């Protein structure tokens, strides 16, 4: 990382970097290396195939869905309760109230409610801030530290929500016929029932889309953490090697440290390497296929490791051995994966063993000592590509000491290793992590997205069922006498319950028809980021449909049952 002087942009530094590259790098490196500078913040957002950026986009859409559903609930309930205000509106019109005044009144009420909700949201934000800091792995300022931009956006959001939620009821109710309003007749508000049902369909559809995608995110993460990666990441301790003395003396010193650590209780295997399976190796090596012209080079990923790397990481050999079978160092040997063997033109792994591979002029001829089976050396978002491993003593470069433990008492084993490390390298820090943690860090964005999606699903379902509760409650209040008449005419409780359930069952069915293609498209686009992914099936879709339908039936039945068993005489007498 570089800290630029004030006023200097990354773009201005590209040309100087190219000049340095031209001066000190060989022609092959110049031809295959492109200089690109990026701000640390931008690099974090765009790295790992843009995982962070995609997560931010997904969370933004989820937040918009939640706000939209809250607005729909407000509009639905406002329209549902409008029958109680029609007489008020009619009387105001009779006494000279202007339409503009009525519109202003309803919008003002909506803005006041939005303001109160905004104040409550600040309390919830502050109480849940630490939780979301942990989920999103970011910093969130307390309310009293909001800057001008954040405060302005918050106020603008309150105004926007207030206007969106109040504008339809304001114009619809203020436009009602004066005579019908005075009589309290809802028939004057055209399209009321259609609008409310349409809004419920939108709510159900959004809830189903988010719920299905949350399940697919969970399934993909389960697939990632249970997939056979081609290596064993369990009980593997990765220690950063310091100081990085990349010469023959440094290599010999680290080999001595490795042997000393192998003698500790609980340490089963040890290896030195320049890379571990957390990313595509950034190093490149140029090779020529046997028998092909030197103007047709093959550029492959490469990193260095010692002869114990395969044993330590549990890699499987397809043919040959991981460098010298005796364990002694033989210069200019390489190990390739099956993809590299195929790229070099060999029919199978066995036919590659012992073959000599040319490099560009001035570099030694390499001999293939072994072929390892393909393993996932980077994120599952990327395909397994051809890979070459060179012996670390050839390149005299290392970054990690990899230790496989043979005990379940990890704290005790780590303490032994730390003590020995300090004894052998007193000035070197002991920085370590388990391979499981390194692997999990590859999918930090996905894990954050899963947690956020789970919370969003719960919130959205809560909002949807609150909306159903409100709409059904007002519907029952308006149809109380109708239910009483049906009971007098012989309708039983089951018939009355089915009367209401049928209406909402159709809404849920229509919502599923709308939501399933949308959820399939969104899940498909997200899964395209992974070279290794689950295949979508009908289980999440049917599961969500069944859950939504069952929960809605239980909620509607609970509300309708009280009205269905009520004394019809009392209902008919009630004015």
Helix count from the secondary structure assignment: 19
Mean pLDDT: 81
Quote the beta fraction: 5-15%
Oligomerization status of the protein chains? single chain
Question: Which value, in Å, is the CA radius of gyration?
Answer: 34 Å
Structural class: alpha+beta
**Largest pleated sheet:** 7 strands, mixed
How far do the termini sit from each other? 77 Å
Helix content: 55-70%
Strand segment count: 11
| pLDDT < 50 runs, ≥5 residues | none
Could you state the order of secondary-structure elements as H and E? HHHHHHHHEHEEEHEEHEEEHEHEHHHHHH
Coarse shape: elongated
Helices and strands in order, then pairings?
Elements: H1 10-24, H2 27-32, H3 40-80, H4 86-94, H5 99-136, H6 148-174, H7 178-183, H8 192-226, E1 236-240, H9 248-262, E2 267-273, E3 284-287, E4 298-305, H10 309-313, E5 317-320, E6 333-337, H11 338-343, E7 356-357, E8 366-372, E9 387-391, H12 392-395, E10 400-405, H13 410-424, E11 432-434, H14 435-441, H15 444-478, H16 480-488, H17 493-527, H18 539-564, H19 568-573
Parallel strand pairs: 4-9, 6-8
Antiparallel strand pairs: 1-10, 1-11, 2-10, 3-4, 5-8, 6-9, 7-8
Helix pairs in contact: 3-6, 3-8, 3-15, 5-6, 8-15, 8-17, 8-18, 15-18, 17-18
């Amino acid at each position: 990382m570089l800290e630029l002087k004030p006023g200097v942009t990354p773009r201005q530094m590209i040309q100087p970097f190219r000049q340095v590259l031209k001066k000190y790098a060989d022609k092959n490196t110049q031809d295959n290396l492109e200089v690109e500078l990026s701000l640390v913040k931008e690099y974090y957002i765009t790295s790992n195939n843009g995982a962070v950026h995609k997560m931010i986009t997904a969370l933004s859409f989820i937040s918009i869905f939640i706000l939209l559903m809250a607005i729909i609930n407000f509009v639905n309930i406002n329209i549902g309760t409008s029958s109680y205000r029609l007489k008020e509106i009619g009387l105001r019109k009779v006494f000279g109230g202007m339409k503009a005044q009525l519109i202003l009144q309803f919008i003002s009420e909506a803005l006041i409610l939005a303001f109160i909700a905004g104040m409550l949201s600040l309390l919830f934000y502050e109480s849940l801030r630490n939780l979301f800091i942990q989920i999103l792995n970011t910093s969130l300022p307390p309310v009293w530290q909001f800057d001008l931009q954040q405060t302005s956006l918050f106020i603008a959001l309150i105004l926007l929500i207030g206007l969106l939620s109040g504008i339809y009821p304001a114009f619809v109710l203020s436009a009602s016929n004066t005579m019908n309003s005075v009589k309290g007749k809802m028939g004057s508000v055209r399209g009321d029932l259609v609008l409310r049902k349409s809004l419920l369909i939108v709510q159900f559809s959004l809830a189903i889309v988010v719920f299905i995608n949350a399940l697919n995110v969970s399934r993909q993460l389960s697939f990632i953490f249970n997939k056979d990666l081609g290596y064993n990441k369990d009980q593997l301790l990765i220690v950063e090697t310091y100081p990085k003395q990349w010469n023959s003396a440094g290599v010999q010193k680290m080999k001595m440290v490795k042997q000393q650590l192998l003698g500790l209780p609980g340490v089963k295997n040890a290896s030195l390497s320049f890379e571990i399976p957390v990313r595509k190796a950034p190093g490149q090596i140029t090779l020529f296929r046997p028998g092909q012209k030197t103007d047709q080079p093959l550029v492959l990923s490469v990193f260095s490791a010692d002869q114990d790397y395969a044993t330590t990481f549990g890699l499987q050999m397809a043919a040959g051995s991981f460098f010298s079978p005796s364990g002694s160092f033989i210069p200019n040997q390489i190990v390739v994966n099956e993809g590299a063997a195929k790229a070099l033109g060999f029919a199978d792994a066995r036919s590659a063993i012992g073959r000599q591979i040319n490099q560009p002029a001035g570099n030694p001829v390499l001999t293939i000592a072994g072929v390892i089976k393909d393993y996932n050396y980077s994120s599952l978002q990327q395909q397994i590509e051809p890979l070459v491993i060179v012996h670390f003593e050839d390149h005299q470069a290392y970054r990690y000491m990899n230790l496989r433990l043979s005990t379940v008492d990890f704290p005790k084993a780590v303490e032994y290793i730390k003590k020995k490390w300090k004894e052998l390298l007193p000035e070197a820090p002991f920085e370590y992590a388990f391979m499981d943690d390194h692997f999990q860090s590859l999918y930090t964005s996905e894990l954050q997205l899963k947690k956020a999606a789970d919370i969003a699903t719960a919130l959205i379902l809560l909002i949807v069922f609150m909306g159903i509760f409100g709409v059904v409650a007002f519907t029952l209040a308006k149809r109380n006498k109708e239910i009483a008449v049906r009971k007098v005419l012989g309708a039983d409780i089951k018939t009355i319950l089915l009367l209401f359930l049928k209406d909402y069952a159709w809404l849920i069915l229509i919502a599923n028809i709308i939501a399933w293609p949308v959820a399939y498209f969104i899940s498909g686009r997200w899964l395209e980021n992974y070279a290794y992914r689950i295949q979508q099936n009908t289980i999440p879709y049917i599961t969500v449909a069944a859950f939504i339908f069952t929960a809605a039936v239980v909620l509607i039945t609970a509300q309708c049952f009280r009205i269905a068993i009520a004394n019809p005489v009392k209902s008919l007498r009630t004015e």
